[in-house]
Design goal:
Strand order of the largest sheet: 7-8-9-10-17-14-13-12
CATH class of the largest domain: Mainly Alpha
Number of domains: 2
Number of helices: 12
Radius of gyration: 27 Å
Number of strands: 35
CATH architecture of the largest domain: Alpha/alpha barrel
Structural class: alpha+beta
Distance between the termini: 46 Å
Low-confidence stretches: 1-17, 218-222
Oligomer: single chain
Mean pLDDT: 92
Length: 669
């Protein structure tokens, strides 16, 4: 179930309203999105599915039910509340005042529990003092359209229904949808798609109707990964109650995005995001796996295997590269290749997963794939070590050099410890890239200078400062709790920390993807000024590791405040509007929510407070907590290091204490 950017219609536009201009995604931020992939349920806050816009139940990208319209006693329930109970479940509450009612107070409460997996439970409760006889009607319909067609405004009209057993059936083009009801309706009218019941409700009594929505039996999706799946049951608590709420919601969202690899259903990976990218996006999946390593290495191992199956192994210059589509890079650079980012991330995730306790058999299977990624990097890099994207005339992005340098340093460490050849050569290559970058990618000015966003084919430096600079501080984890060397020297690192913590980059809600003072800044631009949660998490971790806790704390606090405003379900991005005393974070209308990188980023932000640096092969673990303890005392339980439960407490004084760990682990320095 993969969806690329379509030409969508706006939510709320009735079917047949016509397609929208290319690139215009319909707004989803006002919808309640239940996700339990491959199942989705998109609903307005009143709970009625009207057949308009994106509303409906989906399975594997196909809309099985677009209309589910409830009437009780001839009236629509008056909606009083609609909210998400979990990532995959929504609760809607309405009330009905019957025609025989004596006053303004409603006598019937209507609760609807909607599950993304394809069920809806409708509960009618009476508060009347007398028995009530109620007619309940549910109007059903669907177009069996693909999600991409719905988003583009190209869905067809409702299909004719047929009565089947205790419900309705629709068929078109080999696809089929079946809705069954329990208890069976007393009346079913296929021409109107209508199911009807007559209930007698005694005072204080309740009645339940359960709908089950499923696809053609021959097109069943792969089974889910399970309740816990590859992620541990981690919890957090502390002086700041937002810590526990964000960790719980982030875990819930990430589990809802887990998909089985159809080529090997034993492996799962996180889909990129709902509703637009419900499939494997290698770069985002690897980033999510890396940021959730404190929850165990099972997700990293299975994601690495799923991504490895896509590696290009034929002859030619692309041998060893991972494929990936182009992605917008903002107003000053051409689109970048996500495949290059994934290729450079693969050896990094493998190396760090090994530190956290990746199983030896997984390492042996995946190490040759990482070596092919590194060999592609060596063949593709220029003589000075820099990597140029998209051919000899493409730009050399600073962000890409950071990814390449991290891959080389951690790859060399991995090869050396596994007894594979080439480690020394990669150390030398990384040193050359550091020298090239420090001398050739730094722009001096009176304010202390800044890193260039890129170097063009003609040697011109692109001076615009954006959130991608956070990757220059992300060095990676080596053995014995050591941080890998970075691309920048000490003075340059200090200047980048100052810039990222300044008002041009820190919106008050997180890090802007392009500085507010840069030309082309747009607070809603994906890489032109919006806050991308993933980049903010990278910045917070990098700043904290480098010792710039004030800047890290400011960004962390901003994202935590934004998360609270979004109900602790962080979108992949939101507007980079400047925070004021009476403002709230502004949603981006087309952002995925939930999204793998933002859910994982919430976990990464919180575990950064503990500064856990394991070395499972050496049997050690070190703690480098944020000394200022910006959220007060924090305790994490249910983490995993070396395959065993791990718990850590950070005091209000910023002191770390391990409360549970594998017996063989020793506290490192």
């Amino acid at each position: 179930m993969t969806l690329t950017v379509p030409s969508p219609a706006a939510v709320g536009r009735p079917p047949g309203g016509g397609p929208r201009p290319p690139g215009e995604l319909p707004s989803v931020h006002a919808l309640l999105v239940c996700a339990d992939l491959p199942g989705l349920a998109l609903s307005a806050e009143d709970g009625q599915l009207t057949g308009h816009g994106l509303e409906g139940f989906y399975q594997s990208g196909r809309r099985l039910l677009s209309r589910c319209h409830l009437r009780v006693a001839g009236r629509e329930p008056v909606a009083v509340q609609g909210r998400l109970v979990s990532a995959g479940r929504a609760r809607f509450l309405g009330v009905v005042r019957t025609p025989a009612g004596a006053g303004p107070d409603p006598e019937i409460a209507v609760e609807r529990l909607r599950h993304a997996e394809g069920t809806e439970r409708i509960i009618l409760r009476s508060s009347a003092r007398r028995p009530l006889r109620l007619r309940v009607e549910i109007g059903l319909g669907t177009d069996l359209a693909d999600l991409g067609a719905v988003a583009a405004g190209r869905q067809g009209p409702e299909l004719p229904a047929s009565v089947h057993a205790s419900g309705m059936r629709w068929s078109a083009g080999g696809a089929q949808s079946l809705v069954t009801a329990d208890p069976p309706p007393q009346d079913a009218i296929a021409s109107a798609g209508l199911l009807r019941w007559e209930f007698e409700l005694l005072p204080g009594a309740s009645r339940i109707i359960e709908l089950r929505i499923r696809a053609d039996r021959g097109a069943r999706p792969l089974a889910k990964a399970g309740a816990a799946g590859p992620l541990s049951e981690a919890t957090a608590e502390g002086d700041d109650p937002r810590v526990g709420k964000l960790l719980r919601s982030s875990l819930d969202d990430l589990r809802a995005l887990l998909m089985r690899d159809p080529r090997n259903p034993a492996d799962v990976y996180p889909a990129a995001g709902v509703p637009w990218r419900c499939g494997l996006a290698s770069a985002e999946a690897l980033w999510a796996a890396r940021m959730t390593l404190p929850l165990g290495t099972r997700l990293a191992g299975s994601t690495l295997r799923a991504v490895a199956r896509t590696q290009l192994t034929g002859r030619g210059p692309d041998h060893g590269r991972l494929p990936g589509p182009l992605r917008d890079a903002g107003p000053h650079l051409p689109p970048g290749c996500t495949g290059v980012e994934a290729t450079l991330a693969f050896p990094v995730v493998l190396a760090e997963a090994r530190r956290w306790g990746l199983a030896e058999q997984d390492l042996e299977e995946l190490l040759p794939v990482a070596e092919r990624c590194l060999l592609w990097l060596r063949r593709s890099a220029d003589d000075d070590g820099c990597l140029r994207e998209r051919g000899p005339d493409g730009p050399r992005r600073s962000e890409t050099q950071a990814h390449a340098h991290r891959a080389a340093v951690l790859g060399a460490d991995l090869l050396a410890e596994c007894g594979r050849p080439g480690a020394e050569g990669w150390c030398e290559w990384a040193g050359m890239l550091r020298r090239t970058f420090r001398e050739g990618f730094w722009i001096d000015d009176r304010a202390g200078g800044r890193p260039a966003a890129a170097s063009t084919a003609g040697g011109r430096l692109v001076p615009h400062l954006g959130g991608a600079a956070a990757h220059l501080l992300d060095t990676g984890l080596l053995g014995a709790g050591r941080q890998a060397p970075g691309l920048l020297d000490k003075v340059q690192t200090e200047q980048v920390a100052r810039l990222l913590g300044g008002p041009a980059m820190d919106s008050g809600w997180g890090l802007r993807s392009l500085g507010a003072k840069e030309s082309g800044h747009n607070p809603f631009g994906h890489r032109g000024g919006a806050v991308r949660v993933h980049e903010t998490a990278v910045a917070v971790a990098g700043l904290a590791a480098a010792g710039y806790e004030r800047e890290a704390t400011a960004l962390l606090s901003g994202v935590l405040d934004a998360a609270e405003a979004f109900g602790n379900r962080l979108p992949e991005m939101y507007a980079g509007e400047q925070r004021t005393a009476d403002s709230l974070p502004v949603p981006h209308p087309a952002a995925c929510r939930p999204a793998a990188v933002s859910a994982a980023a919430g976990i990464h932000l919180l575990t950064t407070l503990a500064g856990i640096r394991p070395d499972a092969p050496a049997g050690t673990v070190a703690l480098f907590p944020v000394r200022s303890a910006p959220l007060g005392a924090v305790q994490f339980s249910g983490l995993r290091v070396a395959g065993e439960p791990f718990a850590v407490r950070i005091s209000r004084l910023g002191l770390g204490m391990i409360e549970e760990a594998a017996g063989a682990l020793q506290l490192g320095v």
